[in-house]
Specification:
four-stranded parallel beta sheet; 364 residues; alpha/beta; five-stranded parallel beta sheet
Length: 364
């Protein structure tokens, strides 16, 4: 199959759908998991699930960075917001995620100085404008956001900014893919690999998953036509018994990735065991500051107490993130839980599966 250059051609999309519908399948069901929140939204918004033949099932996995942030890390961010005189800088979605008993949004309504930023450098600017106050940036996200945070930390060092720190709750995606396959709770016949993360880590990062677990991997872009071709490439692999890494998103992703961005990550951070919401404790799946950069580590700068973590009763975000259930199978969905009153992060985030399902899935 020729990789797409004209990725908005409606005739090509129609041809791909017809090809998938006409072909015969050796399996009753082929389960493909996307592990990117942007893909999740694109799939729901474009109605791709309804266009595919019934043998092909698309499953949403742990691709939303806000959603996989552990409840204990939300609670720690909330604790940081209570430090006298502190300014907390965070991305917008995270502020509304419920912790054990509060959220950053609620704490802001009570007087905490919580500010929504769109880039880490905005938090550094706030620190420079407020030299007498501690500014803590809540660092979440996958390999996509980690380079920007590393760059901000290095700039803070060059400028001599001492009132800026980062609470690192970053996650690395390949370990989660391996954990899903090791867990065996959900049969996964192939992965629709993330576009944004792959720009940084490169197509080569998925070779172990494809080879060790005999699971096909295809990196795709974000247009519906990109995803359709990615699905078709995965089906071809599954049906032919192959398991390799293919790069449909060649206009943005290379095999080696963004070498400069990866170098930034490696200079400031190192892999560490980390707890994921829904996935539990995964070895070498997070990032912590290297020793020479620990002066910018909020977890080191402030003595955090032990926090008793409480999960919201009835919330099934953990199961949704692992692809075990779909959002309607949670008893809170569309009832106690909605975008206006979210009980879990999968409904809060713009990339969350529950939020996408609520907004775009047709109610029958």
């Amino acid at each position: 199959m020729k990789y797409l250059d004209e990725y908005r051609d409606p005739q090509l999309a129609k041809d791909l759908i017809e090809k998938l519908r006409r072909r015969s399948y050796s399996k009753k069901q082929i389960r493909l998991m996307e592990i990117c929140g942007t893909h999740t939204v694109a799939i729901f918004r474009s109605g791709l699930k309804e266009l595919l033949p019934e043998q092909i099932r698309l499953i949403s996995g742990p691709g939303c960075p806000v959603c996989v942030t552990a409840n204990e890390d939300i609670d720690r961010a909330i604790w940081l917001s209570g430090i006298p005189g502190a300014i907390i800088a965070t991305f917008g979605d995270l502020a509304r995620v419920p912790g054990s008993s509060s959220s950053l949004h609620i704490e802001r309504s009570k007087g905490a100085d919580v500010r929504i930023v769109y880039a880490t450098l905005d938090a550094l600017r706030i620190a420079r404008e407020n030299p007498g106050r501690q500014v803590v940036f809540i660092g979440i996200g996958f390999e996509t956001t980690a380079p920007t945070i590393a760059a901000a930390v290095q700039q803070a060092a060059r400028l001599g900014v001492t009132n800026f720190s980062v609470f690192s709750a970053h996650k690395l995606l390949p370990p989660a893919m391996r954990a899903l396959l090791d867990g065996g709770e959900v049969k996964i016949d192939g992965f629709i690999c993330p576009g944004h993360v792959s720009i940084v880590i490169g197509a080569g990062a998925y070779v172990e998953v494809a080879q060790k677990y005999a699971t096909p991997c295809v990196i795709t872009g974000f247009e519906p036509l990109d995803i359709l071709q990615g699905v078709s490439l995965l089906i071809d692999q599954v049906e032919s018994g192959r398991a390799v890494v293919e790069n449909q998103y060649r206009r943005a992703v290379t095999r080696e990735g963004n070498v400069a961005a990866r170098k930034l990550i490696d200079e400031v951070f190192e892999p560490v065991d980390s707890t994921w919401r829904g996935m539990g404790f995964l070895p070498k799946s997070g990032l912590r500051f290297r020793a020479e950069w620990e002066k910018f580590d909020a977890a080191k700068r402030f003595a955090m107490p032990e926090i008793k973590v409480l999960e919201h009763p009835g919330c099934k975000c953990a199961e949704v993130l692992r692809g075990i259930i779909s959002p309607p199978e949670c008893g809170l969905f569309r009832k106690a839980c909605s975008p206006g009153a979210p009980k879990g992060p999968c409904m809060v985030s713009s990339e969350g599966t529950c939020g996408a399902y609520y907004r775009y899935h047709r109610v029958v």
